[in-house]
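Case study B.
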Amino acid sequence: MTLSITLVVNGDRHDVSLQDARPTLLDVLRDRIGLTGTKKGCDRGQCGACTVLVDGRRVNACLSLALTVDGADITTIEGLATGDDLHPVQSAFVACDGFQCGYCTPGQIMSAVGLIAEGDAGTDPERIREGMSGNICRCAAYPGITAAVLDAQARLADSERTNG
Amino acid sequence: MPDPMNPAASGHHVRLGSNSGQPMTRRDGAAKVTGTATYAADNRPEGLVHAVFAGASIARGRVTFLDVAAARAHPGVIEIMTPDNRPPLHVNPDEKFHAFAWRTEALQDDTVRYAGQPIAVVIADTLEAATEGARLLAPLYASDPARIGFDQGTRYDPPAVGIGAEADFAKGDLAAGLSAAAQVTETRITTPLQYHNAMEPHAIVAEWTEDRLTLDTPNQAIVMSRNAFAQYFDIPAENVTLRSPYLGGGFGSKAIIVGPQLLAILAARMVQRPVKLVLRRDQMFGPVQHRGATQQVVRLGMEATGRLTALDHHATASTSSFDDFIEPAANASHNLYASPSIRTRHTGVRIDTGTPGSMRAPGEASGSAALECAMDEAAEALGLDPLEFRLRNYAETDPASGKRFSAKALRDCYAQAAARFGWADRPLAPGQMRDEDGLLVGWGMGTCLFPAPMFPARARAVLRADGTAVVETAGADMGQGAWTALAQIAADGVGLPIDKVVFHSGSSDQPDGGVAGGSAHTASAGGALHAAGGDAIRQLAEIAAADPDSPLFGTGNTGVTARDGRLYRSDDDSRSDSYSDIMVRAGLTELTGTGSGARDPANEERRAMFSHGAVFAEVKIDPELFQIRVTRMVGAFAAGRIINPHLATSQLTGGMIWGLSFALHEEGVHDLRTGRAMNADLAGYHVPVNADAPSVEAILVDETDPYVNALGIKGVGEIGITGTVGAIANAVWHATGKRVSSFPIHIDALMG
Ligand code: FES
Ligand code: FES
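Model:
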C-alpha cells in the first residue's frame, strides 16, 4: 500500500509517497525531502531539536506522523532567511552567541520565532526562559539564547514601526 | 632576536592582536542558524541505506538466539549482521592498541558485558524498516546476575587513573599533619554515573570505494582516529577520509572510536553500499562512555589559624568489568590549596556498565565537588568566611610539585567575582537570609582549577601571490569555537586581516590538528597555525632581503614585522614591501610554511601550568517543598590570553551551567536487578533547561602567561564546571544548614 501526502514546506509543494504510516514528519523532512536543517536529538518529544512550524504553530516534528500533517504548511529553519538576508531571529542568535555546537539551534530558532509570534512572552526574560524551555541546549548557551530572543523582539518591533 | 627554528616563539614577526583578542561572532554562525551546517547524519550519499543496532537487554551473559529469519523477512530489510557473519576486523576490538583505544564491542562474539551493548545490526532501505527489523530479532540470553552499584562491584587497586595519570600520590607526612592539626574534618561525597548526552547523538555515514573509506562522523581527534580506523580495516591511513566539520557537542565522548562506528563500516562493506548509523537517544547510555560514579572521602587538618596541615583525598570510582577508566577525582586536590602534607588515592570498582571515559573535566569536576564541599565544612569548623579560609591556604607554588606557577591570577578572580556578587554582605551563619517571598537564600563559593596541557598538532600556511592565504589544520569545532578562534590566530600568524584568510579545518586531509580535549585545542592547534604562518613569513622575508628591488633588501639580522599583508623593517617602519610584490618579483604564486604547536620543554620542567577561577552562587529554596533554584552565579576566570572574549565567555558560562547540572540534575540510574539504564532519555536524565539558569555571568580576568606556550593561551572549556558544583552545594548549606553528601542534590536530602 502506498500512501501519498502533500506538504508545503517553506512555500514549496512536495508530493511524498510513503510505503506505510510509520515515517515521522521529521524523518520525511530529513530523509525524503532532503531538508536536513531540522535536527533529531531524541526522537520522542523531549528535546525540541526538531521544532518546526506547522500552520504557524511550534511542533516537535519527531512526534508528528507525516500522514497527520498531510496538506499542512510547514516552515523549517531553511525557510527563514531571504536569500543572504538572515531573519532577525537568526541574526540575533549570531550576534548574541545563542549557540555553541549549533545542533539544537534550528529548533531553538524555530521555537523563538513561534514564541515571538505567540506574543505571550513580551520582553520579560523570565517568561522567555520559560517559553524556550522546551528546547534543550546541552552546550548550555542559555544566556545567549535569552539575549537573542530579547534582541530579536526589539529588532522585529523596530522594523514593524518602520514598516507600519 | 627571532629564534630561527621557531619564528613564532619569539612573537616578533606579527602583532598578535589584530585579529586575536577581538570579540568576533562565530564564522560558522550563518551556517548554523540557517540549517546549512552539515553534521554527520545530514549526509545522504547516493544509494544510502540505514543501519540500526539491537542492544542487549541484559547486563551480563551470552546471546543464545536471534530471530534472524523474522528480521530478514521484514520488507525493506537488506541484511542482518551478527557474530556469525560479520566481516573480519584487522584489530581485535578488545585490544588496546594505542593510548586512546578503548575495548569495545563490534560483534566479536556472543558475550554481553553491559546492557545496551550492540548484539546485532540490521541494514535496511529505510530507517523505519531497520528499526523494526532490529525489534524482530527478539533475542534470547543465558544471563548472569548484573553487578551494579558500589556494593555489587569488585574492588581493585588501579595501576593508573584517567588516561595514564598516577593513582596514588603522597607529599609530606600525612599522619604528622593530621596529629598536629587543631581540627580535622571529614567530608564524604558520592557522585553518580553521568552520561555526556551531546545533543547530536553519535552518528556515522560510511562509504567504501574499493579499499578507500569515506567517513562522516563527529570526531574530536580527527587524524588520530583516521589512523586508528585504517588500522582496524588494514588499509593505508591515506585511504581513509574522515570528515568532521561540525560536531553537535562532544564533551569528551567523541574522541575515541566506539563499536557502533566500526559496525557501520562493517555493514557498508557487507552490503557494498553507503551506510548511515545514528544512535537513538537511549543507545547513548551504554556503548559511548560516561563519567564513572565516585565515592569520595576528604579529610582536612587545620591549625587554629586556618592553615591546612593535611589534605587526604580518597576516591573510589566505577569502571566496566573489562576495561579501565577511573575518574581521577582525587587528583583534583594536587594543585590548589597549600598544605604541607597531601595524600591522594584511588580505588576502582568493576560493574556491569560500558566503560567510562573523559567527560568534560574528567576527575577535575567530581574531585572539585568533594574538595570544595570539604573546604566549606572546614571553614565552618573554624568559624571563618569560606573565601577568607581559601585565601589563608592560597598556594604561591604548586602544592604537589613545589614548582612556581606559569601565571596565577586567582587572587584577582576571587576579588572580582566576590565584588560583583556582593559576597561581603554574606552572614557567616547558615539560615539567615530570606527573600521577599519567604524563600531561604544561601550563598556559597568554590575555587576553579584546570590544567593547561598541550597535544601535538601541526598546520600549514600557504601565502598566495594575490595577497591572500590558505591555512589549514584538522581542527575540531564541537561548539567551543575552533572555526573562529583558530582562524583568528591563523590570520595573525600570516599577518593578514581575517577576511583575506581561507581557513580549512575539520577533515583528515589536513595536517593533524591534535585532540580537541583537555581544554588544549586552541593552544595546540592555534600554536601550530601561528608557527606555520611564522614559517611562511620567515621565507618571504628571506626572499625580500635578498631581492635588490625590494625596499627590504639587505634587511638581514634587523628582521621584519608582518602586518596587513606587508613586511616592515623592524627598525624602520617607512621601509616596507607587500607580500604580493615580493612573491610576484620572485615569480612565486604560492609559498608554503609549516609549523607545530609546542611548549618550551624547559618551561614545562620548571613551571606548573593551570587556569584558575572562582565561582559564587546564590540558591533559593522553598522552606516547605525544598525545591532548589540557582538564582545567580558569578564566576571570574584567569586563563592567559583570551583569543575571542565573546566565545570564551560562552564556554565559561556553559561550563558553569554544567556545574549546575552536576549539582542539581544529572544522574544515570541503573536498575540493580537487570543492570539497564532506567532513565535512558532526556525526560528521565535531567539536564538544565533555559529556565534553570536564570543568571549566569563569567568575568574574564586579565592574565599574561609568558611560560605556558608561545601565545600565552590556556583553556576555558572545562574549568567552569570545577568550583561551581561545590559553590552550589555550599550555598544550599548556607540556606538550610544541611551538608550535602551526594550529588545531584535531591529535595529529600533537605527534608527532616
Ligand atoms: S527530536 Fe523531536 S523533540 Fe527531540
Ligand atoms: S548549541 Fe550545542 S546543544 Fe545547543
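The helical segments of chain A are 25-33, 88-95, 105-118, 125-131, 142-163. The remaining cases will be described in the next quarterly update.
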